[in-house]
Amino acid sequence: MSFIESMQKRYTTKKYNASKKIEPHKIQELKEVLQLSPSSINSQPWKFTFVTNKDTKRKLSEVSWLNTDKVLESDTVVVFSRINNIALFEEQIEKELPEGAVNYYKEFIKPQREEQIKAWFDRQVYLALGVLLSACAEMRIDATPMEGIEPENYDRILKQTDYATTVAVAIGYRNHDDFNQPDKNPKSRRNIHQVIETI
């Protein structure tokens, strides 16, 4: 199947088959895909936490608003976090990035207010989110991106201090009763001519 066909078939899964597990080699492949995600100046201001532990998932489900069942029934919850400690980030890039990239950060990003710097971190995390969703589509793994969560409580449960939860994704395999499957609820997108302009 081509990539366009994979994207046509992917959808936001609303109900998971809790008994169907993702093969370990596919989980490992998703981890490697995330590690390869692009970011501005190769900044990589992120951490990705794969949660399969039942007790941890239960705790996360209690602070996931309308996503409780998705967290509980999916195979894995992937938590996308941006670095929250700017000093630690600057130490990281000084060690790992070339001088030109570090100078770009110092000239264009560092002079901004703290909330703007962290918003820049968040935008990099969303690049990785798109990569994961696309990879899942290609690998026939169902996925649900979730902003409807309580980030600070996720951080507390995951014992994060230097990182802050941005978004989470439930992954697994759909329940055959899921009402949101494309054959039951056809995909709805704006017309291509309304969203694409060629100049």
Please give a quick description of this structure.
The protein is of the alpha+beta class. It has nine helices and four strands. Its cofactor is FMN.
- N/C terminus separation: 31 Å
The strands making up the biggest β-sheet line up spatially as 1-2-4-3
Assign the CATH class.
Alpha Beta
The SS-based structural class is: alpha+beta
The biggest sheet amounts to: 4 strands, antiparallel
Question: Could you give the count of β-strands?
Answer: 4
Shape: globular
Total of domains: 1
In CATH, the architecture is 3-Layer(aba) Sandwich
Spatial extent as radius of gyration: 18 Å
The share of residues in extended strands comes to 5-15%
Number of helices: 9
By CATH's scheme, which homologous superfamily applies? NADH Oxidase
Unreliable stretches (pLDDT < 50, length at least 5) are none
What does this structure look like?
Belongs to the nitroreductase family. One of its GO terms (molecular function) is oxidoreductase activity. InterPro entries: NfsB-like, Nitroreductase, Nitroreductase-like. It holds the Pfam family Nitroreductase. The chain has 199 residues and is α+β, with helices and mostly antiparallel strands. It is built from 9 helices and 4 strands; from the N terminus they run ααβααβαααβαβα. It has a single domain (3-195), classed as 3-Layer(aba) Sandwich (NADH Oxidase), CATH 3.40.109. It has helices at 3-9, 24-35, 54-61, 68-73, 86-96, 99-109, 114-138, 151-158, 192-195; strands spanning 46-51, 76-83, 142-146, 163-172. The protein has a 4-stranded antiparallel beta sheet with strand order 1-2-4-3, sandwiched between helices. The chain is globular, with a radius of gyration of 18 Å. The two termini are 31 Å apart.
